[in-house]
Amino acid sequence: MRNHNYSSSYAFERPASRSALSGKLLLLTLFLPIAGYAQTARQVTGRVLDGTGGGLPGVTVIVPGTTNGTGTDGNGNFQLTVPATATKLSFSFVGYATQTVDITGRNTVQVTLKDDAQALGDVVVVGYGTVQKSDLTGAVSALGPKEFNKGTFTSPEQLVQGRASGVQVTQNSGQPGGASTIRIRGNSAVTGTGQPLYVVDGVPLDGRSARPGLTTSLGDSPDSNPLNFLNPADIESIDILKDASATAIYGSRAAYGVVLITTKRGKTGEPRLDIGASGGFSTIMRRIKVLSADQFRAALPYYGAPQTNDKGLSNNPLDAILQTGPLQNYTAAVSGGGENGRYRLSIGYLDQKGIVKKTGFQKYSANFSTNVKFLESKRLGVDVNITASQFREQLAPISNNGDFRGSLIGQALQYNPTDTLYNRDGSPFVRRGTIINPVAQQAYYNDNSRVSTALASISPYYKFTDWLEYRVLLAATYSTGIRRTSIDQRLNIEDYFGRGYAAISNNELLTQQMTHTLNFNKKLGADFNLNALVGYEYTKFANSGSTISALGPPNGFGTFGLDYTNYIQFSNASARTVTSFVDPVTELQSVFGRAILNYKGRYLLTTTLRADGSTKFGANNKYGYFPSASAAWDVSQESFFKVEAINQLKARVGYGRTGNQEFPAGSAQGQYVFSNNGTLAQSNNPNPNLKWQSDEQYNAGVDVSLFNNRVTLTADYFYKKTTDLLFPSFPIQPAPPGSVVRWINLDGSVVNKGVELVLGVTAVENARFGLSFNANATFIRNNVSGLAAPIPTGTLSGQGLSGVTVERIQSGYPINGFFTRQYQGIDPTTGQASYADNGSPTFYSGNPNPRTLAGLSTTFRFQKLSLIANFNGVFGNVIYNNTLNSVLNVGQILTGKNIALSNYESPIKESTTNPLTASSRFLESGNYVKLTNLTLSYALGDFGKIFKGASLYAIGQNLFVLTNYSGFDPEINTNKAFNGVPSAGIDYTGYPSARTFTFGVNFSL
């Protein structure tokens, strides 16, 4: 009898069904590759550190000989699946020596990358491409985040002040967002600004700001900074091309040097969010010494001034218009990407109040960049860069050329310290007459501007091979500015008192660019490499604007609680002025080429040629040609060179010619202006022979690296000659009616020559301690020759000085040399000034151009704490103190105005009847040494699993200045141009410089 209870226990002996067997085979088929891969691959994790022990983000980690790799995250961590047969990993990052690590039998590694002095700036941007630093034959200063100045900045040129040899960066005033003057290897500008060409991510900038200018009865307002639209936190590198062999690739726009600004890009790796936040405050750095209230009272009988000038109070008028200016700055950036694309998106917000009340700078900025690759071969790609910003400025009534009534700073300096500033109800005190209370001037003046800018570029490219690439760049830069200004009718400026004033101005700038390039970079044989470039470029510039200004009706704009610009139609119809303009469109068409030949890594030759055609020039000289050639010999690569202590010894020579087209559009053509009531008048005479201004430059240099790159030295000699000087020739007065300006090329030349030295020393560098120094110095001489007649410039301002100039461009002297009466002192018996030859002739009296520039940076690190101090200095120049000359002279005390303390304390009493005149008395030494910034930071590291690479910092800017100059700051350059000819080294009642303290934190998520 069968036992059915056991039948189920033997079920496994039955044959499997066809469907069940198929399912099992399918699972086995899917499982086997996975199991096989598990046996042939493994995961390696680890962390990459820098010399301080902090995590290093963005490091490329790759299995050598494969494309299998990744990037480290914000804390330096990485995770990578590698084949089981992999035995090594390679770690590389710009500025650090590449390191290969054995991973045999290891699943976790920790690597500390070492700084590579040669690798720092390994890839240098040189115009339409990059080259290895070892292949450079020209004079280029390459600076990155490690070299940048630290602090709160409104524009990127402040990052490199004092950090590059041959480059002088001068902050023209202390106004937040104010313009800077940048001189590369001296001053040779007879017209225009003499500023370098700025190129942002391959897009040359127009060089002008869209903020409208302003002219009132108080004078012309200072310029804005054309680089304000950029966020310094977005800058990855700044490369400064100094000699013509490096700049000639930019041809007609490169006479004053080229500054290449590269913004940050996303790096391969996991998405990361970088955040920075800071706050701080600013105070006045230095004061001009004037009489206090008690000193003023004592001075009245001393100078025989009326006792009624003593009003009985004790005030500090300058303090009344100053404040402690708060600031806040925030940045955030998200970035990441993989093999087929990388991205970075950043936003920023800066709000910096000025040290003068009712002034400030506010900026919103955003930057987006991406690189995307297509096709299986990844040979097709596109780069996209977009920068957008809007900044707002609140401006003070501070002008370049205010008349005897002065602008705000002049009013505060000369206002009677015993007089009242406020009425009993707290409103500003106003008294009819020419003495203006600075508190009233400040309260009753409103000036606000807004500038919006967008720079966008798209650059598709295709790599035919690993050594041949075609790229096109399409770019546009659009900037629009609006400015609204009003002067209250209660202010006792005679032109506006009882009526008020309003002005609304608009300006637009548009630059469009198309560039085609073909790049060839290939080894031709075992010892020979050719890096070549050919290109075509077309650029178009447009500029237009309009202004409406008006006085109020007979009874004034009134007090309706609105700014006058909000109801400007209420103004007096007969006192309205409407103006508009559109510049002739300028077009620039160019072809260019460059070849870099490298033989055995030790013999280098670079040649460039650019041909530019511009609508700015006369019909007979549309095109200019700009060649250059340079060579280098790396002696240390020779087999006979066996000096172990010398890692590199490289000699360089170069020659090139560049041009300048920095003058008004349409200047070679006849131009006409439209005026009121249907009138048309000629404003410019044509010149069909107008041609390029030419700059020829020779350069010889040497690069030395010693003791495993712990000591580096670069020395350059340069000689730059500027000819065919562009110049606006005004009719000699008296001239026939209708005579107008005509642009010409002057005979004559300007020569700048000198020596640049850069020394870097890494004294100590280990995991616990680091100490390094970087110093640079430039010794430069300037001379003018061949001019048929002197060119005057450098106008002075103030009562009794109208129409006076103190500078000339004259053969045999430095450009903008001071020519004035030779002051010989005060006669003790009469109190009158005495001058050589009775003051009738004028003598050469001084050079506004520095003969020596210097910079010093020191970095000290102990474990996670670091201290960086940056100094810069200028020597060998003089400054004309127009403020002391016209605003604070002793004669002012008779009319109840304040005077300079130095006059009162002089051992020889000066007579109040001493005529007010220009002379060498007001020329002062411009020598100074300034601690531009001091940074103390602490690397906190990681907090849990969220906050990565956190650091705290405190920064002081303009902490002190060592100088004998009596003004606010020897770092000045008030625009005192005459007939379009720029000035240099004149100081006149400018916005005071600020000392700034910033405290902040950076971290990643």
Keywords:
8 helices; disordered N terminus; globular; 52 strands; five-stranded mixed beta sheet; mainly beta; about 50% strand; 22-stranded antiparallel β-barrel; about 1000 residues
Give an account of the 3D structure:
With 1005 residues, the chain is mainly beta. Helices cover 6% and strands 49% of the residues. The chain has 8 helices and 52 strands. The protein has a 22-stranded antiparallel barrel. A 5-stranded mixed beta sheet has the order 10-17-18-13-14. It is globular.
Broad structural category:
mainly beta
Low-pLDDT segments: 1-38, 117-121
Overall body shape = globular
Radius of gyration: 33 Å
* Oligomeric organization of the protein chains: single chain
Cα separation of the termini: 77 Å
Average pLDDT confidence is 90
Largest sheet: 22 strands, antiparallel, barrel
% residues in beta strands: over 45%
Count of alpha and pi helical runs: 8
* DSSP helix fraction: under 10%
Number of strands: 52
Briefly characterize the structure:
The protein is mostly beta strands.
Q: What order do the helices and strands come in, and which of them pair?
A:
Blueprint: H1 18-40, E1 41-49, E2 60-62, E3 69-71, E4 77-83, E5 88-93, E6 96-102, E7 108-112, E8 123-125, E9 130-132, E10 140-143, E11 167-171, E12 180-184, E13 197-200, E14 203-204, E15 215-216, E16 219-220, E17 235-241, H2 244-247, E18 258-263, E19 269-284, H3 293-303, H4 317-321, E20 325-338, E21 341-353, E22 360-374, E23 380-394, H5 408-414, H6 438-443, E24 445-465, E25 468-487, E26 501-523, E27 528-551, E28 576-582, E29 586-599, E30 603-614, E31 623-634, E32 646-660, E33 671-674, E34 680-685, E35 693-706, E36 711-729, E37 741-765, E38 769-785, E39 791-795, E40 805-809, E41 817-820, E42 823-826, E43 833-835, E44 843-846, E45 852-862, E46 865-875, E47 878-881, H7 882-886, H8 901-904, E48 923-925, E49 928-943, E50 947-963, E51 986-987, E52 994-1004
Parallel strand pairs: 1-7, 13-18, 34-37, 47-51
Antiparallel strand pairs: 1-4, 2-3, 2-5, 5-6, 8-9, 10-17, 11-12, 13-14, 15-16, 17-18, 19-20, 19-52, 20-21, 21-22, 22-23, 23-24, 24-25, 25-26, 26-27, 27-28, 27-29, 29-30, 30-31, 31-32, 32-35, 33-34, 35-36, 36-37, 37-38, 38-45, 39-40, 40-41, 41-44, 42-43, 45-46, 46-49, 47-48, 49-50, 50-52
